[in-house]
Amino acid sequence: MRKHAMALGGAGLMLGVSLMAVQAQDLTAAVPDAPAFAAQSQPNFVSLSDILEYKALPEYHEPAWVTSKYVDAGTLPPVAERLPKEPLVYKTGDMPDGIGVYGDTMRHVIGGRPEGWNYIGGQSQGWGGIDIGLSECLTRTGPLFEVKADELEPMPNLAKSWEWSEDGHELTMHLIEGAKWSDGAPFTADDVMFYWNDNVLDQNVSPLNGATPETFGVGTTLEALDDYTIKWTFKEVRPAQYLYAMAYGTFCPGPSHILKPEHPKYSSNTYEQYKNAFPPEYMNIPVMGAWVPVEYRPDDIVVMRRNPYYWKVDEAGNQLPYLNEMHYRLSTWADRDVQAVAGSGDFSNLEQAESFVESLKRSAEDSAPARLQFGARTIGYSLDFNLSANGWGEPDERGQAVRELNRNLDFRKAISIAIDRQRLGDSLVRGPFTAIYPGGLFDGTAFYDKASTVYYPFDLAAANNLLDGIGLTDTDGNGIRNYPDGGADVEITLLANTEYGTDTNLAEGVIAMMEPLGLRVIANFQQGNARDDMQQSGQFDWHIRRQGSEMVSVVQGTANLAPTGPRTSWFHRAGTGDVLDLLPFEQELVDTVNAFIATSDNAERVDLMKKFQHTFTENVYSVGLTQYPGALIINKRFANIPAGAPIFMFNWAEDNIMRERVFVPTDKQGNYELHPETLPGAPGSDGAM
Ligand code: GLA
Q1: Which residues contact 629 (CB under 8 A, 6 or more apart)?
Q2: CA–CA distance from 92 to each of 421, 645, 664 (Å)?
Q3: How far apart are CA 284 and CA 639, in angstroms?
Q4: pTM of model > 0.90
Q5: Using CA positions, which residue lies closest to atom 6 of ligand 1?
Q6: Which of 76, 239, 333, 553 sits a CA distance of 20 to 30 A from 500?
Q7: 328 CB under 6 A from ligand 1?
């Protein structure tokens, strides 16, 4: 129950309430129920074995022009020789529209910009599904949204099978045998070991999606037994949880035959040179994914053509992908929605609440070129406090003072209750979309427990009292609180991503709501890649962040739920001497998350996540702002789009819909291919051949 001074006698009394009384107040309330909002389609739940298997088929096929222009001309081996011994075979029964036909293009529009192709070396490819499509990982989790809950386990991918040792400390994985990179070079355990030894374990390298040794458990080792067998050794017993970390984005090896010669350990390059060795202009980077970049025009487009060595097929033996080409128009994220709705683009994750009403209106018409399908509330934002007081991001004196405030519970509580979440959500979009997000796990997801969620509702007067109580008062009368003993004004910078209107709108909302609290919050709005760098290196006081999959699924990105390692948390990483200065409740969070990882007993896991949620929200670890559903917008000509595909759960929709088995029926195919009847050229050569 909410009990506060207002109930005792109105606002006038508030002024007379003593500090003692304020501290004794219970500032919490039950989390308000989210407005009902039904997802528009439900997945057809299946077993993993219904989706795929690995086996040799009696015959294989490819587009006719590949045979005639390349195989017959002797520039490409026959398709059977390009495929692994046992390709990954998608089962027809799980393909909504069955076996497909070749042709056409998926025209993506994205707001990011590629830094280059060295994903494992830390470069962004511009997001929006580019890196998801280029990277194949040991396991795969995006499509798990359609797997029966009691059979939930990562899908095999580059690792086609695995077994645990009897004592549960060792996991032996069998890699797909005889698969090749898109340039024909063999994929082997060497690629896996280069990724592990020289990118994950080498602390001078920061792989793009944040893989660190602790992502796979403290003290974990990995070795190659032969070309196609690798062995993990864990301190924990049977930590099946790490199979999720072996999916996108933390265990997707790069082409070691191309990257290794540029790595400082094997060359005279610096780490910076290694990271930047494959700029966006470098074409035909070898990938294990279904399409290879063959054209790049800055601020215009990235074009990809089918990978002739792709190692997945359908049950009729047709080599995938069905789509010959992929486009990524380099525009803005808001334009992605507009173009997908208008039909000049093919795909969007409608995730910026500001665009909902317009997009819904336009796609409701029968003649609309795209389908728009809302899912559950899996998009949410938090306000993160930088909690390192020992040097992460090298703060100056002002920054250091903010870090100390960030570490004070009354301060964090004050910020949380000074935010009117209802107003903030409504400022993005009115209607049943946004819901109050107290922080931590999202409402409506498997491990969420309302009773374990501590919610501090909006209460500006109490927020002001809390700040008074910790000695922050406006001593110079300029409307901004000062640090104690005649200290400076409290000035805080707020990092946010300018690529998304939602991020900056929320940031502006927060800034405005801090004004009546007497805090000067200054916008530090940065373009996506710069924002990522500042966040990764700890150069922020506060940060507006769209939440990762750990808050939706818990099992994906689990190590990010708390500072389980020096570099696993979004807002508290190790400072000087690689030391983490954890607050006592953070240590509890770490212990809870580690216990979660170490057990596969579901009842125990449920209890541990209740504890996690309670500790997280009671201590306002970060301030939840708002959560809302997203919609998948996809052009109606595409077939094999699985029912109920969420835009974000274990991964983004670009992975969830399994683009390699998506196709366009012949009578609906458009004339969109920019490089028809061509294949990728040699690595580093100009364009398609
Ligand atoms: C960006 C977009 C998301 C999704 C991801 C995929 O973050 O905002 O909708 O496309 O990229 O990486």
Answers
A1: 37, 39, 374, 375, 376, 377, 378, 379, 433
A2: 46, 18, 16
A3: 28
A4: yes
A5: 128
A6: 553
A7: no
